[in-house]
Amino acid sequence: MINTNWAQTVADYMIKIYDRMLTTASGGNISVKDDEGRIWITPGGTDKGIMRAEDIVLVDRTGQVIKGGKPSSELAFHKMIYETRSDIRAIIHAHSPGIIAFSAIRKIPQLNTFEASYNVCGSVLMAPYELTGTKELGENIAACFGNGADSVVLENHGVVSAAASIEDTFNQFLALEITAQIQINAARLGDIKICNSLIRSNAKHIKSIEISDELLSFYNRGIKRGLLSEVFGLISCNKGNEYIGCNSHKKLHMAIYNKHMHFNAVISAMPPALMAFAISNERYNTRLIPESYMVLQDVGTFEYEDVINNVEDFANSITRLDTIIIVKNYGVIALGENLTQAFDRLEVAEFSARALLDASSIGKPVKISDQEIDRLKCRFHIR
Question: Is 74 marked active-site?
């Protein structure tokens, strides 16, 4: 009897990638290799947005169909990768917009711009251009994986990520795409800030034994809205007793709770527009529209080393008036008396950052004057 759990896994991840707008209805493919060495792969010519387990094609080691219809036209390079690396059990190929941009200029995103890319992306190489679906393309990709790549950017095509599990493969792919998007945004502001002192850590996804419906709802909303991701960040509340996200941020959250009784929700995040200010020399300014300043006031910025090497000192430097903190080459920290407030601050900050980036593309943004800010403070009793 054939275990169809493999098929469900492939279908689920294909829909996840599609729903995140990281591929199109006709683009991309996913496969996993089961314990018997057979390959479960997405079919060709099928809408990726409504993928079902029964759509997934099963082929043997030679590529002959065992179950299902026509496999993806890229089956050949999936097969070559599995033959090249025995440790690989899952492959994702997608045409995600950020990496497509880098593949078009035939460059790889820089991985030493912030911690998540440094720790999750792994080794990234570039494969020379070849016609889609050809043996030559497969050989170029497999050669990169043979040289130790975890992900391969294809010239003028897309990306292929591979790992020992579909979860690790997805995380590598997602981290690389987020890295690409953030660096594209940062390039609109000027030079990208490199950090050579990033800490290597084994980031793992964690969650507390008990999680309220409210916390889970905000976490899922953050994922859907592009504010949070599985590869970076932590959302916590109730003085840190409830949390879900990346383990490497828990120490920072607890330090904040221990020093500040008025904060009951903390979110570490890596939203792509706001993060552009975390890897550039441009300072993030909330004085764009009244609502931004009213929700956020002035946003503080810290250097990576000053936060990571001195978590307790950093927590001490935070004040009750802080709303959003940008940590260079690391991420964004949203603070609140409750989850709703912390999440709203993060969302307002990201929307305002997006507006600033867009405005800079069409002209020079004009900030609200100091005199008008004073009037705003007086009118709405802002400290």
Answer: yes
Going by pLDDT thresholds of 50, 70 and 90, the confidence category of residue 2 is low
Q: pLDDT of 166-188, one tens digit each?
A: 999 999 999 999 999 999 999 99
Phi and psi, residue 358, nearest 5°? -65, -40
What distance in Å separates the CA atoms of residue 197 and residue 186, rounded to the nearest whole number? 20
Amino acid at site 362: I
- Please report the pLDDT score of residue 230 as a whole number: 87
The residues, any chain, with a CB within 8 Å of residue 379's CB and separated by 6 or more, are none
Cα-Cα end-to-end distance for the chain? 68
Nearest to 346 by CA among 278, 382, 291, 296: 296
68 vs 198: CA distance, rounded Å:
46
Tokens standing for 58?
A: 């099963």
Q: 58-80 pLDDT, tens per residue? A: 999 888 999 988 999 999 999 99
Could you tell me the two tokens for 312? 């307790």
- For tokens 């989850």, the residue is 339
In the prediction, which pLDDT does 45 show? Answer: 85
Give bridge partners of residue 266 from the DSSP assignment.
Answer: 236, 335
Report d(CA 60, CA 67) in Å as an integer.
10
Partnered with residue 160 across adjacent β-strands are 93, 152
User: From the candidates 36, 54, 74, 83, which is the catalytic residue?
Assistant: 74
Q: What are the DSSP E strand ranges found in the chain? A: 29-33, 39-41, 57-59, 65-67, 90-94, 124-127, 151-154, 158-163, 205-207, 234-237, 242-246, 265-269, 300-302, 324-327, 331-336
CB contact set of 262 (below 8 Å; sequence gap of 6+): 320, 337
Rounded to two decimals, the pTM is 0.93
CA–CA dist 177, 108 (Å, integer)? 11
At residue 326, φ and ψ (nearest 5 deg) are -100, 125
Give the mean pLDDT of 217-245.
Answer: 94
Cα–Cα distance measured from residue 325 to residue 119, given in angstroms and rounded to the nearest whole number = 22
Detail the DSSP E strand segments found in 42-108.
Answer: 57-59, 65-67, 90-94
